[in-house]
Specification:
The complex is a heterotrimer of chains A (268), B (326) and C (263). By secondary structure, chain A is mainly α. Chain A has helices spanning 2-24, 27-55, 63-83, 90-95, 98-102, 109-115, 122-140, 145-172, 184-194, 203-212, 215-218, 220-226, 236-241, 243-267. Helices cover 36% and strands 30% of the residues of chain B. A 6-stranded mixed β-sheet of chain B has the order 5-6-7-3-8-9, with helices on both faces. A 4-stranded antiparallel β-sheet of chain B has the order 11-12-10-13, covered by helices on one side. A 3-stranded antiparallel β-sheet of chain B has the order 2-1-4. In chain B, helix 5 (130-144) packs antiparallel against helix 6 (159-171) and helix 6 runs parallel beside helix 7. The longest helix of chain B has 18 residues, at 189-206. The two termini of chain B are 30 Å apart. The relative contact order of chain B is 0.13. In chain C, helix 2 crosses helix 6, helix 3 (55-67) packs across helix 10 (214-221) and helix 7 (138-168) packs antiparallel against helix 8 (172-187). The relative contact order of chain C is 0.15. Classes of the chains: A mainly alpha (268), B alpha/beta (326), C mainly alpha (263). Chains in contact: A-B, A-C, B-C. The interface between A and C is large, with 39 and 38 residues.
């Protein structure tokens, strides 16, 4: 099983590399695209800044602390969008017959789909998230090794979570050709929600963000650790291992993918 | 030993049907009807290892669906198929490792990058050891004559050059079975000949089983000894090329050149295909009227410069098969 | 004139058939609305400084914004962009009709249908749930309706203009990616415009994007009345004229140096 995984990962790296190289040929568009994406994505954070300007603080969290939340969740989403560039385009692949071709390869289909394109300009989005994250960490004063490890764990879990959301969205595409925009609620909506401290939301939404789609686990909980607020009833260890929930969510999404493949075989 | 066995294959699709006009649009808001289409309807055939089969049928006949079923992309709704003893959709990875597919309309080569890069990716996907891969690669480059194109981005190649590279890509991992879906579409004569030559060599020298879907009957005549004709998802003909030709046994083409316009008496079995000032083309159904009679009438009708009686072309035979109601 | 109206209604009818997309859209809008409302309400409840827009007004604004979300152009007109890319543009140009009116009437139909499909159920739902207040007077309702129609025309004009710019400059995809979040911000979807800092509000007020949502929404709530209403409508009309004029100019310039690719 592991040799198959290694094989698929190598194929993905090669395919993504080819996608990257193909885009490098258009140098001006390449650079422009990256910068533009970064500038555009920052408008999300600008909204938070405007809210702070109007309301002072949100739920007792200052701007740098909110920046931490935003940086974690935005970087996670952007990483997932970058690495899984092709997954978002699955319905295009099905429509133009490319997915048929993918099904004739002795390789994990999801890897081939993900590697079928590599939207380099999304690097701009990732960079923007990381810049805000770095700024927030510096302002808060958490720049030690433990903090870096916590951030890395959170990004890993977050990336897995958002990748999982993308996979679920793509799998749903095997059943519904229209109306997949609902899933944007979970990915982009999730990003918006994750940028605010959990307690400001109503109970039912808090449960959703912890138990169903654990976005709070990859942004709020790690932020609690990093801002030393753990006295709120969440032991440090629990908060530090929360990103594992993100990976578990990704595992669930793979089940959905398998069902989607079976559906494709039945209807094409 | 049959390599491919299809038995009572069935594949159905559901399609949404909407009426037009305002009523249709608003009615569609509430409920819409679906119709079921049988793309493959109780299809059975078997293909032995090393055969070169032509797969014919009009557009929408179900050819692509059959190819996809055999490739393992689709799962049959009824019946079964097996390739080299495997169920294509169940043992997908193993099955797919041993087949090659060329979709004429959709290339597997990365458009913006040199051909060699796609070959590299394929090597990674198919996991052959370096020596075998290199040998296979060099052999294909030589057979197809694509050495000058390897470093050029695919977008710069002509259609013929692209198709040859496409063939190389599909064969590099030494599959036992090759599916080709309209490979010569849009190619000029030299390119078509190169493709045909390559396929023949593969089939003869390496024993690769080839299933060729095409509309180009010259390809069929040049390459295939056996054809499968399908329409509406059903098998109309499964036999040798001579059977196909013989299927037009009762039809003859009569070409006439006269000094002045000739009036043709309307009678059953006679069909005027084309008529101009001094030229006439007729199709004669010899089951209804004897050729001798027709010729006698024509010779008597006016001053004849030239007269030719010919058997129908493969195109016509196939066309008449297509039109036949199953 | 009749041909363009017919074309518009045809495209409208075609877009009406997108049922599943509409249902999904309504669900999406409901979720995003709820999301934004919760964030904003938390800010009001726990925030410190004075807001500049009442709580209930903010809630109305967000819900109405979601209901009419489709009015805000998210990307260049797809039909036109596709036609330019594939060369099918030649078909449009071979017809004995004015190209720009043809494209614009199609865009209008294509925007109106999804907007209607979503806004009616959404607004009814919001009334039922008690999260939205109806217009206070008939005058407010009528003013809002007028401005919505104008907003529709402006939206279609923006989409066509984006497609035209994108293609003549050879990179329509880039513009599409760029446009969306910025336009959403400037239209008042991400945050209600009245919450922006006052200096920024003045700048944003000049741009055409507030004509799409902000103006009709404020008319609904009665925030705009009297001379302010008149100025807002004038703003819409002026931008409509500018965008249509710009679009026609691009069309005419483009037709003379057209490069049709492919085919």
């Amino acid at each position: 099983m592991f040799s198959a995984l290694r094989h698929d990962w190598r194929v993905y790296r090669l395919a993504a590399g080819m996608g990257l190289r193909a885009q490098l040929h258009h140098r001006r568009a390449f650079a422009f695209g990256i910068i533009a994406q970064g500038l555009i994505a920052v408008t999300d954070f600008i909204a938070i800044v405007i809210l702070i300007m109007r309301f002072g603080a949100i739920g007792g969290w200052s701007l740098p602390q909110l920046g931490l939340l935003y940086g974690l969740v935005a970087s996670s989403l952007s990483l997932a969008l970058l690495l899984g560039s092709g997954i978002g385009d699955l319905d295009g692949l099905v429509r133009n017959g490319e997915f048929d071709r993918i099904r004739t390869r002795p390789c994990g289909s999801l890897w081939l789909v993900a590697g079928s394109r590599f939207e380099v300009r999304r690097l701009g989005r990732v960079a923007q998230g990381l810049v805000v994250l770095a700024w927030a960490l510096w302002r808060i004063g958490s720049v030690d090794a433990a903090a870096v490890m916590e951030v890395a764990a959170a990004l890993l879990g977050g990336g897995a979570l958002f990748l999982g959301l993308q996979v679920i969205q793509a799998s749903a595409g095997f059943w519904f050709q229209d109306g997949l925009e609902v899933f944007n609620v979970f990915s982009y909506g999730g990003e918006t929600l994750g940028a605010y401290p959990l307690p400001i939301f109503q109970r039912w939404l808090q449960h959703l963000l912890l138990g169903v789609i654990p976005i709070a686990a990859i942004s709020y909980l790690p932020a609690l650790v990093l801002t030393h607020r753990c006295g709120h009833g969440w032991p440090t260890i629990l908060a530090a291992s929360a990103p594992l929930l993100g990976v578990a969510f990704f595992g669930v999404s793979l089940v959905a993918w398998r069902c989607g493949l079976r559906r494709f075989g039945a209807t094409g | 030993m049959s390599q491919i066995v299809a038995s009572a294959l069935v594949k159905t699709y559901r399609r949404r049907v909407n009426a037009g006009g305002w009523r249709g649009a608003l009615g569609g808001l509430i409920a819409s009807q679906t119709s079921t289409v049988r793309a493959v309807d109780d299809l059975s055939f078997s293909i032995a290892s090393g055969e070169l089969i032509g797969f014919l049928g009009p557009n929408g006949a179900g050819k692509s669906t059959v190819i996809k079923l055999l490739a393992g992309i689709l799962v049959p709704d009824g019946g079964s198929c097996s390739v080299s003893g495997r169920d294509p959709s169940r043992d997908r990875r193993a099955h797919v490792d041993a087949i090659g597919v060329v979709f004429g309309q959709r290339s597997q080569l990365w458009f913006d990058l040199p051909v060699a890069d796609t070959f590299e990716l394929l090597r990674s996907i198919y996991r052959r050891d370096a020596a075998t891969w290199r040998a296979s690669r060099d052999e294909l480059i030589e057979i197809l004559g694509i050495a000058p194109y390897l470093g050029r981005p695919v977008r710069q190649l002509s259609l013929g050059e692209r198709m040859r590279c496409e063939l190389a890509a599909a064969l590099m991992h030494r599959p036992e079975l090759l599916f080709l879906d309209e490979p010569t579409i849009g190619l000029d004569a030299p390119a078509k000949l190169a493709v045909r030559d390559c396929l023949q060599r593969l089939n003869r020298e390496r024993g690769v089983t080839i299933l060729l879907t095409t509309h180009d009957l010259d390809d069929v005549e040049a390459l295939c000894r056996r054809v499968l004709v399908i329409n509406h998802g059903r098998l109309l003909l499964d036999g040798g090329l001579e059977r196909l030709r013989a299927g037009g046994g009762h039809s003859r083409l009569v070409r006439l050149e006269t000094r002045a316009r000739v009036e043709v008496v309307d009678r059953p079995g006679l069909e005027v295909l084309a008529q101009e000032a001094g030229a006439l083309q007729l199709r004669v159904d010899t089951r209804l009227v004897a050729i001798a009679e027709v010729v006698r009438d024509l010779l008597g009708a006016g001053e004849v410069i030239d007269l030719a009686v010919m058997p129908p072309s493969i195109e016509e035979v196939v066309a008449s098969l297509y039109l036949a109601r199953p | 004139m009749g041909a363009y109206w017919l074309h518009c209604t045809l495209c409208f009818r075609a877009a009406l058939s997108q049922r599943a997309a509409a249902v999904a859209g309504i669900l999406t809008q409901l979720a995003f609305g709820e999301l934004r409302v919760q964030v904003l309400m938390a800010c009001y409840a726990l925030g410190v400084a004075a807001p500049g827009m009442s709580r209930t007004a903010a809630m109305d604004y967000i819900w109405l914004g979601q209901a009419f979300l489709r009015l805000v152009p998210m990307r260049p007109d797809e039909d036109l962009a596709d036609a330019m890319r594939t060369g099918a543009l030649a078909n449009d140009l071979c017809r004995p009709v004015d190209a720009y009116w043809w494209w614009w009437s199609r865009a209008i139909g294509r925007v109106a249908a999804p907007t209607l499909l979503r806004c009616v159920p959404l607004i009814l739902l919001c009334f039922a749930l008690g999260v939205l207040r109806p217009p206070q007077t008939l005058g407010c309702a009528l003013a809002c309706l007028d401005m919505l129609v104008l907003a529709l025309l402006v939206s279609a004009a923006i989409r066509v203009a984006l497609a035209l710019i994108g293609d003549w400059s050879g990179g329509s995809n880039a513009l599409a990616i760029l446009g969306m979040p910025v336009i959403w911000m400037l239209a008042g979807i991400v945050l209600p415009l009245p919450l922006f800092p006052p200096q920024v509000q003045q700048l944003v007020a000049i741009l055409p994007f507030r004509a799409l949502l902000d103006s009709p929404l404020r008319a609904w709530s009665g925030d705009l009345h009297g001379s302010a209403l008149g100025w807002a409508m004038l703003h819409q009309v002026v931008w409509l004229a500018v965008l249509v004029g710009f679009g026609r100019l691009l069309t005419r310039r483009g037709l003379t140096r057209l490069t049709i690719q492919g085919g």
